[in-house]
């Protein structure tokens, strides 16, 4: 299967480098994606919008043959991107995988209160992050992450998603790979009708599988992440 791999904030397609060989070994064809504005720290990202990022995922789908089986894997905030791309291309996406992530509803924005004068959103200091997010990252991995991090275009943080084809996107088989929060925690939130998982609860066909680690399993447990992706597609 062709698997389009979409990294979360502050990362380019190389974030998946340690995952890709395991997917290839399992017989899949991975396509790591670098989103607009994330090519380098020197890139002008001041005019990059959320729609540009969704369009990049849609373009990656369109670049594949019409008869290709396509899966989308989105990490963190890119869960909203792969969900929106499945909405934009009904019938083209066989499976959506949310890596420590989930779908975002139409009208949802990650941080609508981010000041309008900001053009970009840099990686915050580690001290400002929860220990659960950073779990299993070594000092050398933290340093490498900091060195490779590219500021996120601010528009992609502030702007709301705009979706249209409810029934088609709800019907796409989906898998949440739960790392920072456990599957049990997520199911508990769903039972409480928590807004954090409201859109996930609307899906017709989904599963939640545990991969306990921090928020970046592609760095901390890449082989296990690949195995979870392969397992999701086999199911």
UniProtKB/TrEMBL annotation:
Record-level Gene Ontology MF annotations: catalytic activity
Name used for this protein in its record: Pimeloyl-ACP methyl ester carboxylesterase
Lineage: Bacteria, Bacillati, Actinomycetota, Actinomycetes, Micrococcales
Coiled-coil parts of chain: none
Annotated AB hydrolase-1 domain residues: 3-227
Pfam families cross-referenced by the UniProt entry: Abhydrolase_6
């Amino acid at each position: 299967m062709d698997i389009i791999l979409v990294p979360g904030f502050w990362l380019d397609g190389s974030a998946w480098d340690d995952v890709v060989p395991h997917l290839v070994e399992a017989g899949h064809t991975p396509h790591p994606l670098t989103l607009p504005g994330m090519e380098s720290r020197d890139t002008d990202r001041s005019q990059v919008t959320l729609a540009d990022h969704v369009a990049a995922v849609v373009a990656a789908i369109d670049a594949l043959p019409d008869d290709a089986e396509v899966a989308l894997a989105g990490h963190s905030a890119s869960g909203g991107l792969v969900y929106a791309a499945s909405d934009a291309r009904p019938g083209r996406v066989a499976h959506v995988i949310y890596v420590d992530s989930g779908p975002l509803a139409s009208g949802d924005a990650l941080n609508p209160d981010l000041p309008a004068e900001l053009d970009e959103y840099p990686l915050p200091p580690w001290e400002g992050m929860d220990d659960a997010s950073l779990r299993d990252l070594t000092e050398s991995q933290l340093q490498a992450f900091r060195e490779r991090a590219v500021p996120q275009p601010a528009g992609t943080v502030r702007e709301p998603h705009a979706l249209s084809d409810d029934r088609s996107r709800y019907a796409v088989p989906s898998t949440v790979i739960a790392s920072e929060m456990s599957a049990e925690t997520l199911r508990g939130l769903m039972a409480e009708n928590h807004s954090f998982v409201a859109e996930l609860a609307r899906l017709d066909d989904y599963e939640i599988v545990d991969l306990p680690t921090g928020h970046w399993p592609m760095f901390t447990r890449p082989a296990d992440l690949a195995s979870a992706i392969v397992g999701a597609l086999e199911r």
